[in-house]
Design goal:
CATH architecture of the domain at 4-91: 2-Layer Sandwich
Radius of gyration: 16 Å
Order of helices and strands: EEEEEHEHH
Number of strands: 6
CATH topology of the domain at 4-91: Ribosomal Protein S5, domain 2
Strand order of the largest sheet: 1-2-3-6-4-5
GO biological process, one term: proteasome assembly
Shape: globular
Pfam family, one: PAC4
Largest sheet: 6 strands, mixed
Protein name: Proteasome assembly chaperone 4
Strand content: 25-35%
Oligomer: single chain
Helix content: 25-40%
């Protein structure tokens, strides 16, 4: 299988965002960020047969961002392949990160890497960030 590189850009609240997806034979490399381009973090998530949640770790020294590790796990689960993910966005921007994940899933769906049903559910999850507190359940 040839290596495929896909690039896209979008804007979130006047901030230009860039996406790069490199499709390798058995894994994906995904970079998301703003100008100037840099690789300040890199996480790898791999699906396993032993656990429904893919295993994940940071590949660069320093403290890994838990949100990025979680995003790499969700992506690996959705595409069924190992995912190397680098996200270089401004700190403390949860809405931007949700937008980025939603937009990335659209790109992955265009590349036929995520099934339409899984992608639609994922986009809906990302859109529902402002979840209401859980309603108390009554015990019978």
């Amino acid at each position: 299988m040839p290596i495929v590189e896909h690039r896209a850009s979008d804007v979130f609240q006047d901030q230009q965002l860039h996406f790069q997806v490199v499709v390798l034979d058995r894994q994906l490399f995904i970079w998301i960020g703003v100008e100037p381009p840099r690789l300040s973090n890199l996480c790898m998530a791999m699906p396993t047969r032993l656990d429904p949640i893919p295993s994940a770790t940071s590949l660069l020294p320093g403290r890994a961002d838990d949100d990025i590790i979680s995003m790499s796990q969700r992506l690996a689960k959705k595409v069924g392949k190992p995912v190397a993910l680098s996200v270089n966005l401004p700190a403390n921007q949860p809405l931007m990160r949700a937008f980025v994940e939603k937009r990335l899933l659209q790109e992955l769906q265009q590349l036929d890497l995520v099934t339409g049903e899984v992608a639609a559910a994922s986009v809906q999850q990302a859109a529902n960030l402002n979840l209401q507190p859980a309603q108390p359940t009554t015990q019978p």
